[in-house]
Amino acid sequence: MSLPKRIALPLTLSSIFLSQGCNVISSISESPYSAYDREKGYNPDHCYSCGPYTLESLLKKEGIEKSKKDISKEILEREPFGNTLRLILGTVNTFGGGITWPWEMEKTLQRELGNKYKITKLKRENIPEYIINNPDAKGIILLGNKSNPFDHHWESMPYPPQFNIFKFYPKGTGLETFYLIEKSPPTK
């Protein structure tokens, strides 16, 4: 006996959405730490992801102490469109809830660094080689993988000289975007 098509399709789609992503079933199995973070108003899927971690790392290098949890919370409170995209992607894959979009990173940098720094967004084709190999270059980079368009990662620079990001991440990983951070000259 087979199910009628009008029942089979909704049943199949429902089972796909209920078996993956940020849903009721996966939240039942949530760790006590994640449940505690949610109770305190944090989203553990986002606050422990590479975006808030990278921002925390860069800000710390500049003498600004702000936790990745607080950075994440601010991003989530200020970016309803980003939240909608995270929610949609989170229904398909649990990692969707951890995405920090490039515009969110850029706005957070501008908000946190204010007028003290010049922030220059450089796309892959416009990143000079001397910046990539400069151990003093400061900023954040978005890495992408040519063979997997869904595989992206944020990192802060400078990174330790012994850490070669292109050997650490999967083959095919390369720079997508670089936000160069430079101290602004003092105003007169």
Say how many strands there are. Answer: 4
**In angstroms, what separates the terminal alpha carbons?**
83 Å
What is the fold-level CATH name, i.e. the topology?
Cathepsin B, Chain A
Query: What fraction of the residues are assigned to beta strands by DSSP?
Result: 15-25%
Helix-strand pattern, N to C? HHHHHHHHEHEEHE
- Measured as a percent range, the helix fraction is 40-55%
What's the alpha carbon Rg, rounded to whole Å?
20 Å
- State the low-pLDDT regions, or none: 16-25
Physical arrangement of strands within the biggest beta sheet: 1-4-2-3
Summarize model confidence as the mean pLDDT.
Answer: 80
Known CATH architecture: Alpha-Beta Complex
Number of domains: 1
Shape: globular
Helix-and-strand structural type: alpha+beta
Q: What characterizes the major β-sheet? A: 4 strands, antiparallel
Number of contiguous helices: 10
What is the CATH first-level class name? Alpha Beta
Write a brief caption for the model.
46% of the residues lie in helices and 19% in strands.
Tell me what the structure shows.
- The chain starts with a helix and ends in a 5-residue tail after the last strand.
- It has a 4-stranded antiparallel β-sheet.
- It is built from 10 helices and 4 strands.
- It is globular, with a radius of gyration of 20 Å.
- It has helices at 5-19, 24-28, 32-39, 44-47, 50-61, 68-78, 80-90, 102-113, 129-132, 165-168, and strands spanning 117-123, 139-145, 148-157, 173-183.
- With 188 residues, it is α+β, with helices and mostly antiparallel strands.
- α5 packs across α6 (68-78) and α5 runs parallel beside α8 (102-113).
- It has a single domain (42-183), classed as Alpha-Beta Complex (Cathepsin B, Chain A).
- A hairpin with a 2-residue loop joins β2 and β3.
